[in-house]
Amino acid sequence: MLFLGASAGLPIMLVYQVLSIWMREADVSRSTIGFFVWVGFAYSLKFLWAPLVDRVRIPGFSHWLGNRRGWTLFAILGTAMAMWGMSFQDPAVDLSTIAVCAVLIAFASATLDICVDAWRVDNASNADQAMVSAIYQLGYRFGMIAAVTGGLFIADLGGFQMTYLVLGGLAVLGGSTPLWAPDLSITREQDVNPVVALILGLGTLAVIAVLLWLGLMDGGWLRTVIGWIGGALSMLPKRLAGGLFILVLASPFLIALWFVSRRGRAQLQTGTVYAVPILGDFADLVRRTGAWALVVLAIIVTYRISDTTMGVMAGPLYIDLGYDKSVIGTVKGAFGISVLIFGAFLGGLSAVRYGMGRSMVIGAVLTILTNLAFAWLAQVETPLAAYLFVTIGADNIAAGFAGSIFIAFMSILANKAMSATQYALYSSLFAFFGKSLAGFSGVLADSVGYQSFFVITAVFGIPALILSIWIWLSGFIDGIDESSTPKAGPFVDTPMRPSLLPSVDGS
């Protein structure tokens, strides 16, 4: 998990923090930078192709390493190639190609997240999930240090193109992890020649790379598809487009509500619905948690939304306050991520000693308070490094603490019989709602200024705090069984402690 976390943490900061600083230096507006967070919808929509990770085998790689490790190697190498594609771009010349390359990095990285999350859920018990998540975050932050601190130092020396080129090579080194890391859930097919398997896997990746490269050229198929989508969206009336957007945001709750209804209960009893991808995952969640499925979805959506929205404007704030890239890289990278790791282990320790419910409440409180620290930083007049140390240090301790708890919460909710798809569904919901709101962060910052912006993002954390207190007092998490069979507690046949919501059968 330590090494896999490092592989997964490297690309995400290149899509967000490093890319936003690069664009701000190229005089791209804050509003445009804010909208660029939507390239991260790959992380939000990964549940759409997560069933492939459970059901489809990568030629060569899957037969040699097993499906989890084969997919992981494939995703890491794909991420590296997307980084190299970004190294040939310039935001001052062509933002559209920058956007496409960022989407490719995010898509490959999101696929890697699916693989690693499923690997973790399959190989660790519920009792170990919090600490395993902390170790995973430790590796994740090492990858982020390489991306932020290393990336910005390289940018100072040789430009941002050099940053993506060098870090793409580092990602290839991370691709060695699936070659030796254990996977207790499967056995490797020993009769496959590893040399032949490697050639088949690399050949598959090369074919995909060539198709994408041809699609990015002038008149290529990818540019044509993007043009069609953009043209179709521009033809929609604003009210209709807004209504469709709201419908998409509300769809998880509508599906869960339908399954909680009597008609949904009849479908749950037949068992046929569980074979339907995505829909079956919602059905399984409702089967095991009853009406609590609505509360679970609400927590997944809101718990990290405050930090997700705030984080997009953090990099532009540092630049506008006058901080040098090397100073930002040192504080945000090496120091900030080190204390974030400390916060992650505090979160894991808190879950073990005080329970998941109470720890979720603590994480929600810390998130609100540390968002306000950025509001204080926004009004300082002298860009002292000490101010960055205080603000980023406090925020990253809170983010690490809340992150460990949140990952463990979603891991416990995942049914191990469908871990890749179901965990991807949960994390996609969190990312989709967060990125949807964060895309407008630049518009909001331009309208109200940095200080008011960070106060507003702190307020976004209040619903998560209320929901966390609710599940803590109800004892909901203590009733979750790590097997696929419900047990006594907040499930279908037994009222909760105390009984705050009805079960599926209305009791």
What can you tell me about this protein's structure?
This is MFS transporter. Pfam families: Acatn (PF13000). This protein has 507 residues and is mainly α. It folds into 2 domains: 406 residues, Growth Hormone, Chain: A (Up-down Bundle), CATH 1.20.1250.20; 88 residues, no CATH class. The protein has 25 helices and no strands. Helix 18 packs antiparallel against helix 24 and helix 19 packs antiparallel against helix 20. The longest helix has 30 residues. The C terminus is likely disordered.
How does CATH name the architecture of the largest domain?
Up-down Bundle
Structural class: mainly alpha
The fold-level CATH name of the largest domain is Growth Hormone, Chain: A
What top-tier CATH class of the largest domain fits best? Mainly Alpha
Biggest sheet details: none
Task: Write down how many β-strands occur, each being a DSSP E stretch of 2 or more residues.
Answer: 0
Number of domains: 2
What is the oligomer described by this structure? Answer: single chain
Helix content: over 70%
Strand content: under 5%
Global mean pLDDT: 76
Q: H/E series, N to C?
A: HHHHHHHHHHHHHHHHHHHHHHHHH
Essential attributes:
disordered C terminus; 0% strand; 25 helices; 507 residues; mainly alpha; MFS transporter
SSE blueprint and pairings:
Layout (H helix, E strand, L loop, with lengths): L1 H14 L1 H9 L4 H6 L5 H4 L5 H6 L5 H5 L1 H20 L8 H29 L5 H30 L1 H15 L2 H4 L13 H23 L4 H15 L2 H23 L1 H9 L8 H11 L2 H11 L2 H17 L3 H30 L1 H23 L6 H29 L5 H20 L2 H8 L1 H10 L2 H13 L33
Helix pairs in contact: 1-2, 1-8, 1-9, 1-10, 2-18, 7-8, 7-10, 7-12, 8-22, 9-10, 9-19, 9-21, 12-13, 14-15, 14-16, 14-17, 17-22, 17-25, 18-20, 18-22, 18-24, 19-20, 19-21, 20-21, 20-24, 20-25, 23-24
